[in-house]
Amino acid sequence: MSSVGAPTRAALFDIDGTLLHGHGSGRRAFLRALEEIHRRPIDDAGFSFAGRTDVEILKKVLAQNDLPDPTPEEILHFATLYCRHLEHELSLLDGPLLYPGAERLVAAVCARPDWAPGLLTGNLREGARRKLASTGLWERFTFGAFGDDHEDRNALVPIALRRAAQVYSTELLPGRAVVIGDTERDVACARAGGAKVIAVRNGWDDGVALRRAEPDAYFEDLTDTGALLAALESLTAD
Ligand SMILES: [Mg+2]
């Protein structure tokens, strides 16, 4: 991550399903780490990882397998193994991870001095770094809030904005922040933090539930950079 500038607005990008498609790599790494720790098959059937924080997923999967909540030390141990498996899983993937338009949109936001480009993701920070480093995007973001900052995604907007304030030495108001995400949970976390939200379907299901969550703007994908920038601007206008 890099720094500097004097922005007045923050773009808070979700990662999975928004900027990139992991092709199941994160989920496979998650299960392999848990199976390595517990030395038994782990059942993760029956619920979606989408929009949840990694610690929330961890607790849910453990409970489903009649295993107790992890201690902070066990979470750290899990994170180490998970990141090792993730690195391996990412190395096996063919083809581009990024959704069409993702790189162009992030570059366009970064090119605007009044915008602070940040991350807001349920990924553990180290997992986020590995996923984005494999695409070349990690260095573009100057701050972020991650799954190891808080188990509850709805707590992440103020954490992200505190980080931005540290990086830029200026306060960024939640009403001048826009979450860009692909699930109803992204919409909910923006609302909880007083931020605006752009929802992007990116091919996930039919988009009905996402539209029903009433994001401030809805896009089928990230390909129309001009329209997305216009939405970012209008949502944060005075
Ligand atoms: Mg997502």
Bound small-molecule species: magnesium ion
- Secondary structural class: alpha/beta
N- and C-termini, Cα separation? 29 Å
Give the overall silhouette.
globular
For the sheet with most strands, the description reads: 6 strands, parallel
CATH-defined fold name of the largest domain: Rossmann fold
Order of helices and strands: EHHHHEHEHEHEHEH
What oligomeric state do these chains adopt? single chain
Task: Give a written overview of the molecule.
- The protein has two domains: 9-21 and 97-235, HAD superfamily/HAD-like (Rossmann fold, 3-Layer(aba) Sandwich); 25-92.
- Helix content is 43%, strand content 11%.
- It is built from nine helices and six strands.
- The protein has helices spanning 25-38, 54-64, 72-92, 102-110, 125-133, 156-168, 184-193, 208-212, 225-235, and strands spanning 9-13, 115-120, 143-145, 177-181, 196-200, 217-219.
- The protein has a six-stranded parallel β-sheet, with helices on both faces.
- The longest helix is centred in the middle third of the chain and has 21 residues, at 72-92.
- The chain is globular and about 55 Å long.
- The mean pLDDT is 93.
- It binds magnesium ion (MG).
- Residues 14, 16-18, 50-51, 181-183 line the site of magnesium ion (MG).
